[in-house]
Structures
1.
Amino acid sequence: MKIKEVYAKSVLSKSKIYDYVVNPYVGCQHACSYCYARFMRRFTGHQEPWGRFVDVKVNAPDLLRGEVAKKKMGTVWVSGVCDPYQPLEAEYRLSRKCLAILFRHDWPVVIQTRSPLVLRDLDIFKESAKLRVGLSITTANDEIRRVFEPRAPSIAERLKTVASLHRNGIRTYVMIAPILPEAENLIRMLAGKVDYLILDRMNYCHADRIYERHGWQDRKTDEYFARVGRSMVQACAELGVECRVAYSLDRPDESP
Ligand code: SF4
């Protein structure tokens, strides 16, 4: 693993998902096989494979302090091309420092992580009335998680984390994205533990070889995502869980 401390020029960047994104790190120790952020290798000049390098923006909190004072308030996504609570955060505490600045200025924040380390910062989360914290959980089966996300926290740890955030009064959501095999079993595990769910299909081809190796090609087709998505929406309705779907649930043959 190549860890490099770097000095960034800015940290509060425009985003297509929310108004802004803050990435205290570039690169991610979780190394998920399907990760869309691997395109960052090109921009950073790293030769190492995705998941084997992290650039640590050691001046991120200093930059953010200045940028928050100058820019128009908007919702900030933490983070886009890294997990803000990847293991290095335990040592560097950059995500925590950046979040404290955003909360102090009352900016709306959406945190997205796969890690129970997020619970370390419950004390500062309680300072914000404009915070949502999302855990990404992509399958209910930890063997399948191990295949696609071998270096990310277990499903059990993530379920415990989301339940704990919710119990502590934090607005909490689970991002079931991408929907991996056996994701549908998550719905009953999450009922009562989240404010809402977001579903999205696999939109990238980086993990195609894994699907082929395991004979799971039929679990990444348009038809599969339409059928599983509809059954998950139905299960949410039955269990009273709010559910947002980020892709079309029409059967491919129903498209105009
Ligand atoms: S945790 Fe997120 S950013 Fe990190 S490798 Fe996985 S998908 Fe990519």
Note: The pocket of iron/sulfur cluster is lined by residues 28, 30-32, 35, 37, 82-83, 114, 152 (CB under 6 Å).
2.
Amino acid sequence: MIKFNKVSLKYDKDSYAIRDLTLKIDEGEFVFIVGKTGAGKSTLFKLLTRELVPTSGSIKVFKDNIEYISDRLIPYYRRNLGVIFQDFKLLEDRNVFENVAFAQEVIGVNSFKIRKRVIKILNMVGLRNKASKMPYELSGGEKQKVAIARAIINKPRILLADEPTGNLDEISTNEIIGLLDSINQNGTTVVVITHDVHLVGRMNKRVIRLDEGNIIYDDFGLDEQIKKYMMSE
Ligand SMILES: Nc1ncnc2c1ncn2[C@@H]1O[C@H](COP(=O)(O)OP(=O)(O)OP(=O)(O)O)[C@@H](O)[C@H]1O
Ligand SMILES: [Mg+2]
């Protein structure tokens, strides 16, 4: 489903954000991407969404090499992706309902269908009673749920989440990850960037660790080095 073949990305001429990276993620997988700040995690997502094109190498998503998608067709490609950003990116002047409905409006779904779907999704993420609240009236965890609702309403085949549990306490973190897990159980491929080693340690999922733009670990659960580090805390 996702294949990186020797992908490199340079923002400027002498430093690589992603370096000769080869990676395969199958349909239906749940993958954590970890690594210290500046390791290249968000850059990897920007390559997947075609915000960036590799300096060298190729990226195949579904059946096509995405570097060849024409500008005109990029919006159609992106409809297959649900993205949750590191900083939510909610529309501050629209309420919860409108924030979630927006993703459907831009693809031209009729308002009757939109209403039905938005209510269903808000029920799913536990925000039905917050539908008319504005973003500034929500807690961090609630905002994160709106971001998830918005990312999944178009039924994407791949869900990308950049630090979805960023500033949340353990209970909200578990709730958000539970949601992402159930979305994954329904067949969506889910890729989650996180700094939270405790979270990754609790879940037995595939973990890819990036360092200086390359993969230094790819297996289920935490690597020994991190386990040792956690024990020493
Ligand atoms: N727009 C940009 N222009 C130039 N360099 C950039 C740009 N965005 C990121 N970089 C550099 O690329 C490298 C990888 O950045 P990236 O944002 O992918 O890291 P990250 O793993 O997501 O870090 P964090 O955990 O802090 O979010 C870093 O060295 C960063 O400084
Ligand atoms: Mg980042």
Note: The radius of gyration is 18 Å.
